[in-house]
Amino acid sequence: MLEARRRSLTLVLCCLAQFMVILDVSIVNVALPSIRAELGFSAADLQWVVNAYTLTFAGFLLLGGRAADLIGRRFVFIAGMAVFGMASLVGGFAQDDTMLVGARAAQGLGGAIVAPASLSILTTTFTEGSERNRALGLWAAMGGAGGAAGALLGGVLTQWLSWRWILFINVPIGLGAALVAMRVLAAGRGKRPAGHFDLAGAITVTAGLVVLTYAIVGSEQHGWGSVRTLGLLAVGAALLAGFALVEARLAAEPLVPLRIFGSRQLTGANLVVFLMGSAAFAMWYFVSLYLQQVLRFSPIEAGLSFLPMTLTIVACSQIASRLTGRIGAGRVLTVGMSSIGAGMLLFAQVRVEGTYIVDVLAPSLLTAMGLGFSFVPVTIAATSGVAGAEAGLASGLVNTSRQVGGSLGLALLATFATHRSADLAGTLDPVGALTEGFQRAFVLGGILALLGAAAAAGLLARQPAAQPV
């Protein structure tokens, strides 16, 4: 009984951590106008409230996953939750834009430590098959719900209290979870000694991902053909090439043993989750802006508009965990990604004189169904059959792929939307031009999601089903 209770509490802790980490990717979207007004952000610099988090999150995820294997999953989880909570406290008291951006970057570091550690803890606590599928289904549902609930909670807190409470709310949760984890979580790490840590690999892959994402984000302001953008892209590519060289030839204990990509299932799952992140992160961002800037919703109205989406993701995630055990992750994932693509293309029909029911609710429910049917199977596919000593690595890879996809996808779609709106500025009123830009972004997001569906069908749909749930 005591062991069953400990495992239940472990599941609750890991789900709470995943919910909080993913929540903070999107919770700031609704609060951005209030943050800009109080701290004096310029229009160009406001994006860094989001991107400071996503850049450090994406760049340090692999390091966090490997640290869980080599140092110990419980220690890494507790340290990550503590960093996340303290960074949230600093951000809540931010007095200028630099202080807030720095705190958001530190939050991203804490999230990058926590996310792979929590998934690794689950994959080593629950045995592979129906038991693990149930646990991963709940964990994945919390990640999906966190992304959708961010806008809801951000709107409520911003309008009723202050934008600062979107950060303060993490403090008791993060520090409280760290204290509970000291008593509940079992210590554990892989068989490799902690001294064999691939520092060169960690530095090159983190720097490469950060520089590459930074280049894409900056292209919105500086243009794709600028010396700055091309130079940063070249530097990022060179760093990633250096990482591959270190892992293949130089590292005694590589951060990412390249042999792991010999798994068709793991490689395919990471490709699909990259494309899913590219579409989903941008969708939350642009829908939040459409609701406030075009339909003129208040922050709390915009936040509440996401409630049906949140509930749908949670419900469909539970259905997906059962279906994955019966028919296999690839088939469920193909349906899910197709639904996301269809929802994004339906979002592309948004109008200046639109309504919530027609222009937002209908496509959001279709997209939410797709997200619910995608988060669970892609997580299961990416971590099934991985050795216990490399559970943190597989967890870090799937989280990295989703986060990098989200960062790059948001930057790319925002760039195309901005360019479209600028091109039409002389022929349409500002709101009309803005809406046309949103339409362009949704079309491109739909294409990315449908590419993910094709990848799931081609690379994962023939994989055998897991044990029935």
TrEMBL record:
Keywords: Cell membrane, Membrane, Transmembrane, Transmembrane helix, Transport. The chain crosses the membrane at residues 46-63, 75-94, 106-124, 136-157, 163-185, 197-217, 229-250, 271-291, 303-320, 332-350, 370-392, 442-461. InterPro entries: EmrB-like, MFS, MFS_dom, MFS_trans_sf, Sugar_transporter_CS. Residues 10-464 form the Major facilitator superfamily (MFS) profile domain. One of its GO terms (cellular component) is plasma membrane. GO terms for molecular function: transmembrane transporter activity. It is a multi-pass membrane protein. It is found in: Cell membrane. It comes from the Bacteria. The keyword Transport applies. PANTHER family: BLR6921 PROTEIN (PTHR42718:SF46), MAJOR FACILITATOR SUPERFAMILY MULTIDRUG TRANSPORTER MFSC (PTHR42718). This is Uncharacterized MFS-type transporter.
